[in-house]
Amino acid sequence: MAASAKKQITYLWEGKDKKGKVIKGEMRAAGDSFVNATLRRQGIIVTKVKKQSSFASKGKITDKDITLFTRQLATMMKAGVPLLQAFDIVGKGHNNPAVAKLLGDIKADVETGSSLSASFRKYPLYFDQLFCNLVGAGEQAGILDTLLDRLATYKEKIMAIKGKIKSALVYPISILVVAFVITAVIMIFVIPAFKDLFSSFGADLPTPTLIVMAISDVFVTWWWAIFGSIGGALWFFFYTWKRSEKMQGTMDRLMLKLPVIGEIIRKATIARFSRTLSTMFSAGVPLVEALDSVAGASGNRVYYDATKRIQSEISTGTSLTVAMQNANVFPNMVMQMTAIGEESGALDSMLSKVADFYEAEVDDAVGAMSSLMEPVIMVVLGTLIGGLVIAMYLPIFKMGQVVGG
Does the pLDDT at position 171 exceed 70? Predict the structure, then answer.
């Protein structure tokens, strides 16, 4: 097999020129022997050749970068710009060097004869199965520009709804963290100063004051164990969550049962399910095959398992509506819209409307929750900090009354 037909890898090399000056560079090649031979022909004495391990050294590629690239590529192709030229324009105009390099590698693959979808499949970290399937369907049907436009819209909407979920979760969590830090600072630095003052009173202290001082003693003595335990528990939790399917399933089920936040997550998951299935079905991807991508994009283990059951039932001849009813995780409105879509032959359109509805519902729910959380958080913080302050000033008030009497 010719070297050009093999998978090209980026190599970092180091060597000396004819004058003995140390020079460095990088080269895309099928193997290190090709790099050595090429450099020798240029009169360079090679001292080191190694594969470039990842994109990490030049920056991180985020989902936002991929979404922006998809929109730019779709816009250029709709405007009639040739594919390879579009890759050049997007790559050179990107602020993130890692994205520019990724696009350069994909362009090089396409130039050697690979299809665009096959080139994307070489980078599963950035382009998932849904992305590659839609691009492949567009190439086969000759409507790549149209499907890239749909894919860009899909990714923009999914990214927006993920952002809303994050904002719904991050706000209360950040407030709880701030409240804990403030309480810890008061317990470790402020309360001991009051304790020294009260020791000279020679009188019995009120019960709330004694309780706060006892808690302060624990914080002062064991602060390293408290912070270490919390940090270790959080690390263990997230480490296990990422690697254990059982843990993911348990947490996803628990998240859906949380008051207020659980309903937002449920609506967001249904919106993602509907949007993904609508996008795949409108691209002409068979329903059973499309449900593979839908399950992966659901973002919740409960709905992943339900989608897999739906896929299994459809493959044996059950209609989508009946299979969704059997899954018992979708509201009546979703199943009725799906039934109408199946009967009228406009399933993709109906699912798109369901996605629009639930995305709007998530938007409204996040706004309502933010409005509700602000006074609740103020009350909680006020009660916590105010309670500590009152507990520490009670002895002073008591002493004032004695002196005044």
Answer: yes
